[in-house]
Write a structure and sequence with these properties.
Layout: H1 6-17, H2 24-31, H3 36-56, H4 59-70, H5 72-77, E1 82-83, E2 86-95, E3 98-105, E4 113-119, H6 125-140, E5 150-155, E6 161-166, E7 170-172, H7 173-179, H8 184-203, E8 216-219, E9 224-226, H9 231-235, H10 256-259, H11 267-282, H12 294-303, H13 309-312, H14 323-329, H15 335-342, H16 345-353, H17 365-376, H18 388-398, H19 400-446, H20 460-474, H21 479-495, H22 499-512, H23 517-529, H24 533-548, H25 555-571, H26 575-592, H27 598-613, H28 617-632, H29 639-656, H30 659-677, H31 682-697, H32 701-719, H33 724-739, H34 743-761, H35 766-781, H36 785-803, H37 810-823, H38 832-841, H39 851-865, H40 869-886, H41 891-909
Antiparallel strand pairs: 1-2, 2-3, 3-4, 4-6, 5-6, 7-8, 8-9
Length: 915
């Protein structure tokens, strides 16, 4: 069953919900044509939203509250009134059940402050009073230091029910934890206190029903206080004025059975504790950043599985790009360290508490607390179905010294007989596996014998296809041999660039044996190569937790996993997370292996791309040149690795210059991959694309276009129509056609690339911004200036959100915006966009490198249109130098030349703008 596209579902829901009910069917019929599943999801959200609105706006009971909310002065007027022996001082809170006032005892008996909750009108008063008297004694038995007590209650003279509660002055638990920057362990200790209070109430048959961070305070002494215990049950009415059961809970913090209107048990508080723990450890909600409306969130609670906390802390919110860093810092960690700390045991504990079925959760709040205690004591947690290795690891962590001494003693006694028996068993198993593998490989290679095939040539892919089929048929009783051979087959598919074929083979290999970590790593790599970045990152995170939890963690495998995690984060535009992983990885590898070890160089090659994206190409140049020089001197040489080293250095040189050097590197890389892998291999196709990119930069557009078009054909055959690389090559073709003044031909490529990148990456991604620019230039050349300007502004906003406001990648989009403003004769009075683009590119060189002349020209043109005579001089001088140094055919020369020709007469007649 295909995975729902929640981004599209959310977008369509938010567009439809603001329409009149009569207009929605036509809108959805058009938006969801031939997609009935999509339409059904949106319809379900709209129906849930309608139900929520109906329940929230029953006018009979809600009108008094509506008037109170609209007329806040009326609420303030209640200050000074008496309710029994209490005098209201001021309003201190408001929620779905009513308003809360700070009150003071006013009968002269003694001084005491309290919180008085004025319960919303709408309940049957007779029933409320009857229920209150029956329940008050039960609630009074909640004598626990961490539960705020219910002191009194009654009905005011004008018929408003009220409850008198212990007043707690302090901070909400989440706010307190973040302000104090509490560690994971300290937060867990606070959480255990909350669990103890909840368990106390449960033992007295009292369920809170509305546990949430705002109902859990930390007072001035650091003491936990739970508010409103039992209030939900007390004021829940089956016969309200409207005749419908009142929902006295907060939907965001409700258990699925509460939303379904089922019987409420202590299990709803267990679910709420799981939500609280998720919030305390991640600062997030468990259903990601897509459930942004109440109806959508209710749908998520009922139908979706919650995120793993370890993944949630790495999910970037486009509206809060620094959130993941701030969240980790509040826990005294880096984002990746926080994710690692949560993966494994804490993931399992929280997800068990959040299961949809009450019977599948922890049986009680104390059972949940016991599992958290086990985690803190390095004992196996019950939520995790640990195998023997897992339990042994936790035991050794608890008793490291005693375990070591005991192990030595035991081994001294058993070393003779035990080792001999183990070696014999292992030898027999290896012999069986080797014999099975040998028989299989002998039969497979027979397929390549011309005699057996009667002269027909068998390709490598045909051998792999046949081999994979035979493994499944012939080695059913040899799971270890089958796993090893399938791993080899999967890696061979991957080596041929056949990622779709590799994926199921590697998945099967990984599933056959418990600890087939190499197959899991290969599987994650293929997921990345297929553009399934979220899935790849999840697989890598789980694998890292497994390796790290082993008795003797494989450091080399851990390094490979971390390298792939960094690379995948770069592909997902999560540069901060990637940088943190790279820093830790390289520091360790340089210490363990040295700078010129192959493993360290592999990581540095990937790190160089990150440095370029961070505008640190000069640092990258030193690193990649050292690797290329070192590899040139190797004999024998690994040509595959050397080709990638050449490519990494070429990327850096393309940013530092000269382009002739970059072209030489790209041609050497392409010739090498062509010789090693052949014309249609994925590596060779990538090299061809890279060479075309350099040719484009050298204005050899016809040569570049031919190569790009051949790459598109190969990529479509290899990857299908919806891979990120398909978007990239469509953008490359469109950009080249625009530069050749063939914008009409460029449009379908530009539109395809933008649609695909919006689907894959969303709006705030550097690749999406590039496609916005490309389509904007198509619109500009077509004379559709308003559309072009809108696209350029979106590109700027996208880059700012993704890369920050100071990245020099912004200069191109800013230049585009200035060009369209100049064409519309609507320059900014202060030329701020032109000046900003200039400042981003200005490196302080007094000789003004040639790339700056384009900036000079646009800035001069803007000033000229604003009435500054010197602006035309700057524009003419820049055009002259561009023509002399880049030639008349360079796209920058042509753009500025057209601008100058258009301006020459009109600028002289333009009125001056006041500054």
């Amino acid at each position: 069953m295909p995975k729902p596209d929640w981004a599209r579902i959310r977008t369509l829901f938010e567009q439809a919900v603001i329409l009149d009910a009569e207009a929605r069917p036509a809108f959805l019929a058009h938006a969801c044509v031939d997609e009935p599943a999509l339409r059904a999801e949106v319809d379900a959200l709209l129906a849930a939203d309608a139900r929520a609105n109906q329940e929230a706006t029953e006018l009979g009971g809600a009108a008094p509250d509506l008037m109170l909310a609209l007329h806040r002065d009326h609420q303030n007027a209640l200050a000074g009134q008496r309710l029994g022996p209490w005098r209201l001082l001021r309003e201190i809170g408001r929620g779905g059940m009513g308003a809360v006032y700070l009150a003071q005892r006013d009968d002269g008996e003694y001084v005491q402050q309290a919180a008085i909750k004025l319960v919303r009108p709408g309940w049957d008063l007779g029933e409320l009073l009857q229920r209150f008297r029956a329940e008050r004694q039960i609630l009074a038995t909640l004598n626990h230091p961490n539960i705020a007590r219910l002191l009194d209650g009654g009905v005011s003279a004008d018929g408003k029910p009220y409850l008198v509660l212990e007043y707690v002055e302090g901070s909400e638990i989440g706010q307190y934890c973040d302000t104090e920057q509490l560690t994971i362990e300290c937060r867990l200790q606070l959480f255990l206190t909350v669990c103890a209070a909840v368990s106390h109430a449960h033992h007295r048959l009292v369920v809170h029903r509305d546990l949430k961070p705002s109902n859990i305070m930390i007072d001035a002494t650091g003491q936990v206080k739970l508010l409103d215990f039992g209030i939900a049950k007390l004021i829940e009415s089956k016969t309200s004025i409207t005749g419908t059961q009142t929902r006295v809970f907060t939907p965001e913090f409700a258990a699925p059975e509460q939303l379904r209107g089922e019987v409420v048990t202590t299990s709803v508080d267990v679910y709420a504790l799981g939500l609280l723990l998720f919030h305390l450890l991640t600062g997030r909600k468990p259903y990601g950043i897509t459930a942004t409306t109440p109806a959508a969130y209710e749908h998520a609670i009922l139908n979706l599985e919650p995120q793993r906390p370890s993944q949630a802390v790495l999910d970037r919110d486009p509206d809060a790009p620094t959130q993941i860093i701030d969240c980790a810092a509040a826990r005294q960690l880096q984002p990746q360290q926080l994710s690692t700390a949560l993966s494994g045991d804490l993931d399992a504990i929280i997800l068990k508490a959040l299961r949809k079925e009450p019977e599948q959760r922890y049986a009680s709040a104390s059972a949940l607390a016991d599992d958290v205690e086990r985690y803190l004591q390095h004992e196996p947690v019950l939520a995790r179905r640990g195998n023997l290795r897992y339990r042994m690891t936790r035991f050794l962590q608890r008793h490291a010294l005693a375990s070591a001494l005991g192990m030595i003693a035991v081994l001294s006694l058993l070393v003779g007989a035990g080792v001999a028996l183990w070696q014999a068993e292992q030898a027999a198993a290896e012999a069986r596996k080797s014999r099975a593998a040998l028989d299989f490989m002998t039969g497979l290679f027979t397929l390549a014998d011309p005699v057996a095939t009667q002269g027909e040539r068998v390709t490598a892919r045909e051998l792999l296809d046949t081999g994979s089929h035979r493994i499944r048929e012939q080695l059913l009783d040899q799971p270890d041999a089958r796993a090893e051979l399938l791993l080899a087959m999967g890696d061979a598919y991957r080596g041929l660039g056949l990622f779709d074929q590799a994926l199921p083979v590697l998945a099967e290999s990984a599933a056959l044996t418990r600890d087939n970590d190499r197959a899991r790593l290969s599987h994650a790599i293929v997921l990345h190569q297929l553009g399934q970045f979220d899935e790849s990152l999840a697989e890598l995170g789980a694998l890292r937790a497994t390796v790290q939890g082993g008795l003797r963690p494989d450091q080399d495998l851990m390094d490979q996993v971390d390298l792939r995690r960094a690379v995948t984060n770069v592909s997902m535009n999560r540069l901060d997370e990637a940088g943190a992983i790279f820093d830790q990885l390289l520091q360790g590898q340089r210490t363990r292996y040295g700078e010129r070890d192959r493993r360290t160089e592999e990581s540095v090659i990937r790190y160089a791309s990150w440095l370029v994206l961070r505008d640190r190409a000069d640092e990258a140049y030193v690193l990649t040149k050292a690797i290329v020089d070192h590899q040139r001197g190797q004999s024998p040489r690994d040509n595959e690795f050397f080709a990638r080293a050449l490519g990494a250095h070429a990327v850096v040189v393309s940013h530092t210059g000269p382009m002739t050097e970059a072209e030489a590197l790209r041609r050497e890389e392409y010739d090498l991959t062509l010789a090693v892998f052949g014309d249609q291999h994925s590596y060779t196709v990538s090299s061809r694309n890279n060479l075309a990119t350099v040719l484009f930069s050298e204005q050899r557009y016809a040569e570049a276009l031919a190569l790009f078009q051949s790459v598109l054909i190969s990529r479509q055959q290899q990857l299908g129509p919806e891979h990120p690389l398909i978007a990239l090559i469509n953008t490359n073709i469109a950009t080249t056609l625009v530069s050749m003044d063939r914008s009409a031909e460029a449009r379908p490529y530009a539109e395809t690339a933008l649609a695909l990148r919006e689907q894959l990456f969303g709006e705030n991604h550097r690749d999406t911004a590039m496609s916005l620019r490309t389509l904007g230039n198509v619109e500009f050349d077509a004379g559709r200036l308003d559309q072009a300007e809108a696209l350029f502004r979106r590109a700027i906003a996208s880059l700012e959100a993704a890369m920050g406001p100071s990245t020099n990648m912004l200069s191109g989009s800013l230049n585009d915006l200035v060009r369209v403003q100049l064409a519309k004769r609507q320059p900014e009075p202060d030329c701020r966009s032109a000046q900003r683009a200039f400042d981003l590119n200005d490196d302080g060189n007094p000789n003004a490198p040639i790339r700056m002349q384009y900036q000079f020209a646009l800035l001069g043109a803007c000033r000229a249109l604003n009435g500054d005579p010197a602006g035309m001089t700057v524009l003419r001088n820049a055009e002259h130098r561009l023509r002399n140094e880049l030639g008349p055919d360079d796209y920058r020369t042509r753009k500025i030349g057209a601008l100058l020709a258009d301006f020459d007469d009109s600028v002289r007649a333009a009125p001056a703008h006041s500054n």
